[in-house]
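Saturday, quiet lab. Running sequence design on the structure tokens for the scaffold JK sent over.
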């Protein structure tokens, strides 16, 4: 048969929908075989005439059934009965189709109701609609659905629906089906992998947003890895302004200075070391174990101090010099000291250099564990006894009212020259050495004192560490402070931070229940990054959840963060819990939070923290008093 014969045949009769559908199937099969041959490197020299063994004069139903049998597929045929009522007819299936549905051939009396009972309940209505549409439009169609085998197993089936006709018009429907479970599962897996690839964050170490350097936690992990595989040297550089900064400097000015210091650190060190922001004015440099490393590391530390001291930084068009010191600790492989321990040793060495008037203090090995712990505890206790803390207030927007209705009180720790700095490194140390309770009690007492001197017309929130609530005496301490400062319990909410592990579930529940019985409310901070947060929602009587800022800071650009925040908001609302989002930076983030009905928003996009006086004026709106260990997104506090 040549082209002329094909054209002549086409002129003799107009193909029906069934012939057109068959032609499409044959064309697809031929194209797939051709593409496979070309991909396999075969060369096509001669086109051969195709012989169709089904081209003899048979009816359409028989032709389709034979084609299905050759392809090891099954068929279900419904033949309309024009004499009986509408919808009646004869239904039968091939042995192959019976086995696809998990039935032994000849054991099922097939009716429409029987057939639909074998279809997965979730897919029944979709199958009905597809069959009805194909019949009404007399057009072929494809549909995929699930069937349930007698043992309960589920298989995926794909059917091609075709309407066959006689001289009197459409006479029935024949469905050609095959088991495509393996193909469908492979498709679902490809889709899952594509979604996971799109959602997965490429950078596991979320950098500090101001300096671009890895955070304290990341550097600690890298030190841990180094001590396991060969040792190395950790250098901690401490910087502070040579003169007191003007009070008029804003957070933006501090951030600009921190970014300039980080850039100078990168330029000086190069790409052969791991850098990190480990505290306010503290910078870490991790060097691997290589030949001649001790001398090279000490030389680098001297170079860093000289470079930082001689460099002129610019703040508000005025030049500024930095006083700089460095602490250096060498460590070998397999030592019991953790990355946190080595970082603390480096920080203390830098402080010793400042105290002794030297540029660099070198430790040939880590400090003894007992000495390290005693020094850390002493440092925390001195800070508490000397009141080296101050409080800042940051506004929180109620997204339902689109106005500021609360403030969060943030703790600041004063450094050696009296400048308030971000507290996260200090609080990290206090929690790890078991001294966070003393800090929490300081905050509770001073916060309640401020509240008691005010009009108490607002709502106030005080945050305590997850480690502190394990202390059985904390609840009585809080109740006594409320009585002593004459604070109304209904004006207070106590917030448990998720940063540290809640050490004792029973004590946590007792504290939470006691606080609620006293008339106060309960909140959960840093939600999503702590330990067993979902479990806490089950047994702690929580009224408010604050989603951690790591899920919010890049919300507009991260599909993964969008999925997490939207679902967490939905979950909390379904449990009757208010939701707040931290680290909101821009209007786009606010719009997304509103669309998910998040209740409160907090961050630089809604207002920066401001220092508060010892006796603040009563606010028309509510104020949150909170001690937090925020994620490391700012450098100079």
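Result came back. Writing it out in full:
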């Amino acid at each position: 048969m040549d082209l002329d014969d094909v054209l002549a045949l086409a002129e003799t009769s107009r193909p029906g929908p069934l012939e057109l559908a068959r032609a499409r199937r044959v064309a697809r099969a031929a194209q797939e075989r051709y593409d496979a041959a070309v991909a396999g490197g075969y060369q096509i020299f001669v086109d051969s005439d195709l012989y169709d063994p089904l081209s003899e004069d048979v009816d359409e139903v028989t032709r389709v059934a034979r084609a299905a049998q050759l392809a090891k597929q099954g068929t279900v045929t419904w033949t309309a009965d024009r004499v009986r009522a509408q919808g009646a007819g004869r239904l039968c299936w091939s042995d192959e189709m019976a086995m696809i549905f998990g039935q032994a051939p000849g054991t099922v009396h097939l009716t429409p109701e029987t057939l639909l009972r074998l279809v997965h309940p979730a897919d029944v209505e979709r199958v009905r609609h597809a069959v009805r549409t194909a019949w009404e439009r007399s057009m072929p169609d494809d549909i995929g659905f699930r069937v349930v085998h007698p043992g309960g197993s589920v298989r995926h089936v794909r059917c091609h629906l075709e309407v066959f006709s006689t001289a009197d018009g459409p006479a029935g429907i024949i469905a050609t089906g095959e088991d495509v479970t393996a193909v469908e599962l492979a498709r679902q897996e490809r889709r899952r992998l594509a979604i996971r690839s799109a959602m997965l964050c490429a950078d596991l170490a979320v950098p500090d947003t101001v300096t671009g350097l890895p955070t304290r936690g990341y550097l600690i992990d890298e030190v841990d890895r180094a001590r396991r595989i060969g040792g190395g040297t950790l250098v901690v550089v401490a910087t502070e302004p040579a003169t007191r900064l003007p009070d008029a400097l804003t957070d933006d000015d501090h951030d600009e200075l921190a970014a300039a210091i980080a850039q100078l650190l990168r330029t000086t060190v190069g790409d052969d070391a791991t850098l990190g922001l480990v505290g306010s004015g503290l910078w870490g440099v991790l060097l691997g174990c290589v030949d001649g490393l001790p001398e090279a590391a000490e030389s680098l530390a001297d170079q860093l101090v000289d470079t930082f001291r001689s460099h002129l930084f610019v703040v508000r068009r005025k030049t500024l010099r930095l006083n700089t010191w460095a602490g250096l600790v060498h460590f070998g492989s397999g030592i019991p000291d953790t990355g946190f321990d080595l970082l603390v040793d480096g920080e203390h060495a830098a402080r010793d250099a400042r105290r002794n008037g030297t540029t660099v203090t070198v430790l040939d090995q880590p400090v003894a564990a007992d000495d390290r712990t005693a020094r850390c505890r002493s440092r925390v206790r001195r800070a508490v006894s000397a009141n080296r803390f101050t409080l800042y207030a940051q506004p929180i927007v109620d997204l339902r009212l689109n106005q500021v209705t609360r403030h969060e009180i943030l703790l600041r720790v004063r450094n050696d020259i009296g400048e308030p700095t971000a507290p996260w490194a200090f609080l990290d140390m206090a929690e790890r050495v078991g001294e966070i309770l003393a800090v929490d009690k300081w905050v509770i007492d001073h916060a309640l004192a401020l509240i008691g001197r005010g009009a108490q017309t607002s709502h106030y929130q005080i945050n305590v560490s997850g480690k502190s609530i394990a202390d059985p005496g904390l609840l009585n301490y809080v109740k006594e402070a409320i009585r002593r400062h004459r604070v109304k319990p209904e004006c207070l909410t106590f917030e448990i931070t998720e940063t540290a592990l809640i050490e004792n579930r029973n004590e946590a529940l007792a504290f939470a229940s006691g606080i609620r019985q006293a008339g106060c409310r309960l909140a959960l901070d840093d939600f999503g990054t702590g330990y067993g947060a979902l479990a806490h929602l089950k047994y702690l009587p929580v009224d408010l959840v604050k989603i951690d800022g790591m899920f919010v800071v890049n919300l507009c650009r991260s599909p993964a963060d969008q999925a997490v925040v939207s679902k967490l908001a939905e979950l909390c609302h379904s449990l009757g819990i208010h939701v707040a989002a931290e680290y909101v930076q821009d209007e786009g983030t606010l719009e997304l939070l509103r669309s998910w009905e998040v209740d409160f928003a907090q961050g630089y996009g809604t207002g920066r923290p401001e220092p508060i006086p010892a006796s603040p004026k009563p606010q028309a709106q509510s104020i949150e008093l909170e001690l937090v260990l925020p994620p490391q997104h700012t450098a100079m506090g």
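Notes for JK: Confidence is low (pLDDT under 50) at residues 46-58, 83-87, 615-637. The chain has 19 helices and 23 strands. Ask whether to fix the surface positions before the next round.
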